[in-house]
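Entry:
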Amino acid sequence: MAKINVLPKYIADLIAAGEVVERPSSVVKEAVENSIDAGATIITVEIQHGGITYIRVTDNGCGILREDIRNAFVSHATSKIAKQEDLDAIGTLGFRGEALASVSAVSRVEVLTKAGEESIGTHYRIEGGDEILLDDAGCPDGTTLIVRDLFFNTPARMKFLKKDVSEANAVAGVMDRVALSHPEISFRFIRDGKETLLTPGDGKLSSAIYAVFGKEFASSLIPLDYTLNGVSAKGYISKPVYARANRNMQMFFLNSRLVKTQTGSAALSESYKNSIMAGKFPACVINLTVPNETVDVNVHPSKLEVRFANEKAIYDCIYYGVKNALSRDEERPQVDLGKVTGTRFAKPQVFTPEKAEQISFQPKKTEEVKPFTPPVKKSEPVMRQPVVAYNPQPQTDTFVPKPKITVYTPPQEEKKEVIPVIEKKITEEEIPIVKTEEVKTEVIQIKEEVKIPDFRIIGEAFKTYIFVECEGKMMIIDKHAAHERMIYNELKNRTDGIYMQSLMIPVTVTLSKEEYDVIINNLDLLEKAGFSVESFGTGSVIVRECPSVIEANDIESILTETAGYLMHNKNELISEKLDWIFHSSACRAAIKAGDKTNPYELEKFTEKLLSDDSVRYCPHGRPVLAELTKRELEKFFGRIQ
């Protein structure tokens, strides 16, 4: 266990200002990083009410000596660095010595710790920066940090905290990233008494990915292992067919530290060029290993941004490494029908002449049929009967019932009792006065029939643009833009609700913890847009219903796009958010450029377009059609001046 020392002022001034503790996830991040630096192989994190009321981090690391326990909660006290030169090659996650001091200043902190060389542990309590207790404790080697009542003495900062669910999801996101950066450590996360994450700690990144994101996401990845110019890139990248709508699932680690690098994102996108659709982004979990002296992590308070000594080496390693991984995975998928079992999809048997000789066919034996002889009683005299030719028939077990004879009986008419009617003259005085209420009449407006002009479809160019002759003009229609506008109008203008379809097989969507949180907090908005979404465990949702115009294959991309939009536009009005979802859904559901369309569909499509004057621009503002008059054509070809 390295000794914890208070840094001199001149060294403390060289350190970038530390990140202020602003929410429970930042407390968990700092505590877990300290456990990793302490050499722990098993780390357990437990929170309650989003971590606002209770956080517990337990590890089996080296522990803290009793003589250093007070210094651990002093600002700029650390065992990671001791002199100025240590800042040039930082190899630990933490180095500033501000985490515990910042946490203890705004919460009630309790520590149980024991170093390997000590015979008894230490129990230490500090609240709001004031020491409360320092005593002996019986505990195993390692450290347990308990944080209660975060911001109990700063109510102004407490008001900026979000719901318990959102804060808990932020903590879960921290645990996911830490687990992916250190697959050799077994992480356990307990949320309100329920275990939501458990990694095996076997050192395999694939096992950590499986534990964090599930089987479906893990099966869509390609292994990456490449070294170039002293830079090593190891991890996994997604297959091109599993590209996503945003970069939220791109995770880069530098020497097992989560970082944000535009260089890495640019190299990854460039390596996937011509392999995925425009507007799509690959997912990845890549750990870059470089010498500590070639990178500066003392740049940003959150330690997420770093500065490279040679960014070109980072770019080249990622670019060529991903290219090689993609080239190895260019095999076509094979379908083995022999693996399908069951009565409907059983593998057909092939009969060869050799197998046919082994099969002997024997006809079914039938019993010998004897002619029928009528029995004769001995006691009665035999009477002579006229000779009749009789052809005996074989006996069968088939029972032939005798036909039933029903006698038709005509229905009898019911006798009705005739009641004599006595006519009575009513005088004017006996006529009752009936009060008539004012009847409200509702005026029904009959929509006038839209007159569709005569048109003739000339043809279609590039399977994208429809050429139509109409009233002395030639129109060029962009069928994708027009269809997109039609669907958008149908979704937005429906007053009786959006037509929703129940999916026979619900669609499960794997999301990052930030995406999952924003989707769960906007379930009512998604329901108004026609999507029935439910939580399917931490980090994934299940879609059971969607608008009738949407195909099941587009649900995942629509949901991930919506999550990315909602994350960056939280303050937008609900109507604007709903409008954006309609845009995205219409774009996905519309016919694509290059899709084949038969003549009948072209005619009906054009007829619908000409009958609706609102379909002139797509939801993104692009024109739907362009017109060219006969005069303009004649002028172009020099027929007129």
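The longest helix spans residues 164-181.
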